[in-house]
Amino acid sequence: MTFDIRDFTAKIICEKQVTDAVTDSVCRENELELLLCANEDKPMFVELHWNVSDDKDFLVLGDAWERSYGELEFRKLSENDRFMPWYFIATDKKESFCFGVKTQAKSFVCFRYDESGITALIDVRNGGNGVHLNGRKISLATFVYSHYDNGNVYENLKDYCRKLCDTPVLPKERIYGGNNWYYAYGKSSYEQIISDAKLQVELSEGIENKPFQVIDDCWQINSCEGPWYPNEKFGDMKKLADEIKEIGARPGIWVRLLHNRDAAITDEMRILRDGQRRYLDPTREDVQKYIVADVERVKGWGYELMKHDFTTFDLFGSWGKDMGSGITNTENWHFYDKTKTNAEIAVDLYKLIKKAAGDMLIIGCNTISHLSAGLVQISRTGDDTSGREWERTKKMGVNTLAFRLAQNEIFYMCDADCVGILEDNIPWEKNSQWLHLLSYSNTPLFISCTDEINDVMKNDIREAYKVFNVTHKIKPVDIFDTKTPSEWEIDGETIKYNW
Q: Is the dihedral of CA 489, 491, 492, 497 positive or negative?
């Protein structure tokens, strides 16, 4: 295919007619840095277009704004009517090319690739309005192009991802253990968590790398929102963390930092969107101090891992699955600080959390994937699996593991989510296969169950933990045929799963 990254047209879209907004670009080998400046204008989008000359009906795969929702797949170019967030790969199985932007951009970027060429739609809004740059010149994104003359599609995508993320932060050890969500679903207690931690230590006996016991949504006063203090079923959270450590596990905890009913939070500290003020506005200094205090409190209790959740939804009012070509579907609203783009605001928030967390490991859930790379050690790359429905685990877990595995240990550790075990809701013959695949995937492995699981399950989990703590070579094979690949090459052998 013929493609010159320097040969493009640009169009700026502002709230009103364009008067002083201008773009600039810096070209390097196979890279294009795009800059934007405006004084009075309030830019909303920048659209770039490249004419691409090719007569092949390529197969095309894109990424997702935050988590994926079971939708990732290769599609024929002739049928590719979607916008693809962050990057895409196109291939005829003999050659491939990749096009996208580097991580931690200052804009939200998605692509459309069809017979007319390649279009990049760059969202530079503040909330649902144009951004007030006030003469500031910002680097919106750095575009990167790579071409591969071989049929090693998965390896090519993995190589390309390395070119997009310059500063990943990764945990020193493999991350695995228990998470109580997919059997408890918000109903738990201090005593139950201690029981869960003891089970994880039992199942990982003989492994030097200690397992985590992560306390998900259930421990705080209000369901799924702050203030971030314990309810009566949990009590002393520092004592609980200490006891988990004494048992031989590592304590982890879940928070939702932008949703909080603390009476000390005033209306002015919340985003005004759709006529309501629900979620904290992280562009305010008083909110930033509040978020730091919450993170430092959790850290002070002794938790070694923090899973922070819902930042995409709370910031922008939409789930990734409902977003089209822009990050927010709601118009006519803005953050307190109108001078920064939505992407800058998200990155600043993730940097604030990371700094406050110190040496705590961070799992980002419902975090904006491309913007959190380098700011979280672990990212939940797919929507929730299930302890109740196998089809949900198959759709969400297998799909994200297959089509975002190329990002693993390059952007962050890719967490495809838990093996949920809740009574007999999911046949073990299915769940054990998901466990087996995760154990070889080199990605985090979390199990959600109580000590009431049977001996067969316990033995399978013990074996999975042993396998998990060794590095393996793995890739999906039938990625062009299905959204949930069942053929995987693991350590040189092709394994067929019966999903």
A: negative
For residue 57, the model assigns a pLDDT of 83
Whether the CB-CB separation of 34 and 46 falls below 8 Å is answered with: yes
What's the rounded mean pLDDT across residues 466-474? 97
Strand 445-448 relative to strand 225-230, pairing: unpaired
Residue 54 pLDDT more than 80? Answer: no
Contact indicator for 367, 103 with CB cutoff of 8 Å:
no
Which DSSP category does 1 fall into?
A: -
Which residues lie closer than 8 Å to 295 by C-beta, 6 or more apart?
255, 257, 306, 353, 356, 357
Give the pairing of strands 176-179 and 212-215. Answer: parallel
Q: Which of 65, 63, 66, 89 is nearest to 157 (CA)?
A: 89
- Residue 280 CA to residue 157 CA, distance in Å, equals 37
Q: Structure pTM?
A: 0.97
3 state DSSP class of 360: coil
Q: How many CA atoms lie within 13 A of 413 on its CB side?
A: 21
Correct CATH for 176-496 of 3.40.50.1580, 3.20.20.70, 3.40.50.150, 3.90.550.10: 3.20.20.70
Sequence ranges of the chain with CATH classification 3.20.20.70: 176-496
CA atoms within 13 Å, Cβ hemisphere of 122: 30
DSSP state of 236: -
Q: Encode burial over 185-220: b for 16+ CB neighbours within 10 A, e otherwise.
A: beebbbebbbbbbbbbbebbeebeebbbbbbbbbbb
3-state SS class at 349: helix
Q: How many residues does the chain have?
A: 499
Cα 446 to chain centroid distance, Å, stands at 16
Cα separation, 96 vs 117, in Å, equals 16
Q: Three-class SS of residue 162?
A: helix
Residue with tokens 């990625």: 479
pLDDT at residue number 250: 98
Q: What angle do CA 328, 132, 311 make, to 5 degrees?
A: 35
Model pLDDT, residue 330: 85
Q: What share of the chain is helix, strand, coil (3-state, %, to 5)?
A: 30, 30, 40
**Cα 257 vs. chain centroid, distance in angstroms?**
16
Own/partner pairs for 73-78, CB < 8 Å, 24+ apart?
73/403, 73/482, 73/483, 74/479, 74/480, 77/113, 77/114, 77/115, 78/115
State how far the Cα of 124 lies from the Cα of 44, in Å rounded to an integer: 5
Q: How confident is the model at residue 55 (pLDDT cuts 50, 70, 90)?
A: low
